[in-house]
Amino acid sequence: MIFPVKYLMPLVIIALLVLPSAGRAQPHPLLQDFSGYQLGNSVFLRWTFRSGSLCEGVRIERSQDGIIFNEIGEIPGICGNPETSVTFTFTDSLPVPNTRNYYRLELGNTGYTTALEVEFIPAGDQGYTILYSDQGAELSVENPPGRKGEVPILDISGKSIDSYIFDQRRIALTRKPVIKGIYLFMLRYENGAGLSGKFIIP
User: 198 or 5, which is more confident?
Assistant: First the structure.
């Protein structure tokens, strides 16, 4: 549910641990850049050949552990340009959910790039996903209406429990000690937009 910030109660601001969701690899000698990030329910990869760099075909590979890779796509033919830089893109429509995916490129007979790490967390029907671990609960918002904001945490009766500042798509909702129960969160972004929901600590 999206609502204006004026309907949310002001709460004390406390620091928040946030985690990145995009990656960038050390470039291959032929490349000036190789990066990737989650885009909706897929992973978008982008790489740019340096001016004057050429190879014969590109194979895109993915791994769940960064060790064993499997091919998921190929761009045949001459890649690169003798006179200018050239950018290629590839969309992985079936990344492994709720974990880190590792990607690398095989650039013809010039070898592999280093592995690129991209975390993929599919969003639920409401546009966000609650992730649980031994550390508690985290919130991942698919398409946030803003970057920075505050997330108050309430118990089921509406009593204020905690509040955090955030500036990333993935937000920690709990801090130890974590008490079992049902909790409410109310994200309010600096641009006035908001998002609310609930989560359970079993």
Answer: 198
